[in-house]
Specification:
2 copies of one chain form a homodimer. Chain A is of the alpha+beta class. The first copy, chain A, has 6 helices and 9 strands, in the order βββαβββαβααββαα. A 7-stranded mixed beta sheet of chain A has the order 3-2-1-4-7-9-8, with helices on both faces. In chain A, β8 and β9 form a beta hairpin. Chain A is globular. Chains A and B meet through β3 and α6 of A and β3 and α6 of B.
């Protein structure tokens, strides 16, 4: 696989409970090294538009034809606004990889969904579908789902786009931008 | 000079004539390769707070002690909101480098200032003070002012932080973020 493969990393901004929307930032990068574009959109907090908004972000960027994979910081944006990664792949034809630093606590997530959403089962089905792979790194393992490509291809993309730590640059930078523009200074980790 | 030297690049967002403020984005980078932080603030369009806002951005970031130079996309942010780079250096003790792709047309600038501002002389003095160096690159020459370091040191910093084209990464990325968050997709060149 080429080191200079174009990737789109997406992460959401931090938000407070009074906010209706969270910003989402997309970073188009060649491998893990060179930023080619910055995209912004917003999703409704705890809403159900994340799949649609991600699709718009992908479809509307002039970089679309170059993007070989989309990397998401987990499967939900703006709280429990869950991305249907299969649908996103089917509609864009671009492979999707989700990555989280921590193993999701599915019991807690299910409990929170049941408490807060009448349509909890829809969200739960989206959140829990697809195989979650534990992927070893030089540091702690990360947790990965992928659709439209094999886990081995996903691992290769993660490896070539990670510079320091365990999070690929397109997601790490999307996190820095999303938190920086919301809080005035970026903080924390994707 | 270390390749991994920390730099802060600052650029402003595009704006329309109805706007009162333009966003400014700061990118903290190691050399031209690795983004460590994203900062955001705003300046009043055609106002006189750019020096103060840049000073705040520098003073308030947790990266301050590491930053070895500040790189500005030209000497004005948010229209004719001119940065007093000597004052900024004197108050922060961090060397300042301004870079533009095109040679400023000083006659046109003076004319525009005279037309729009009663205090045009103050702005003109800030804009025109300090030596403007024409610096050769592999491509077109760039135009550089510097304070707090020699032009040879400034050239070295520009060289080590430029990957493609002629604009150092901290400024190039600040431009992408500033235009991307304002327009939804980044465009144009710093």
């Amino acid at each position: 696989m080429k080191q200079q493969i174009r990737l789109l990393g997406i992460d959401d901004s931090p938000f407070s409970f009074n906010d209706k929307y969270a910003n989402i930032i997309g970073i188009v990068m060649r491998g893990g090294a060179y930023i080619e574009g910055v995209l912004k959109n917003q999703v409704s907090i705890d809403g159900d538009d994340a799949t649609h908004i991600c699709k718009n972000m992908i479809e509307n960027t002039r970089h679309k034809e170059q993007i070989k994979a989309v990397l998401l910081d987990g499967v939900a944006l703006g709280g429990f606004n869950v991305v249907d990664i299969e649908k996103l792949y089917n509609e864009t034809k671009i492979p999707i990889i989700t990555i989280t630093r921590d193993k999701p606590d599915f019991d807690k997530i299910k409990e929170a969904l049941q408490k807060h959403f009448s349509n909890w089962e829809v969200r739960w089905n989206l959140l829990s579908k697809g195989k979650l792979h534990e992927v070893k790194t030089k540091h702690n393992p990360i947790f990965v789902k992928c659709t439209g490509l094999s886990i081995d291809e996903a691992k290769e993309i993660i490896k070539l786009s990670t510079i320091r730590g365990v999070i690929p640059e397109p997601i790490r930078v999307a996190h820095l931008v999303a938190s920086g523009i919301t809080r005035g200074e970026s903080y924390g980790k994707a």
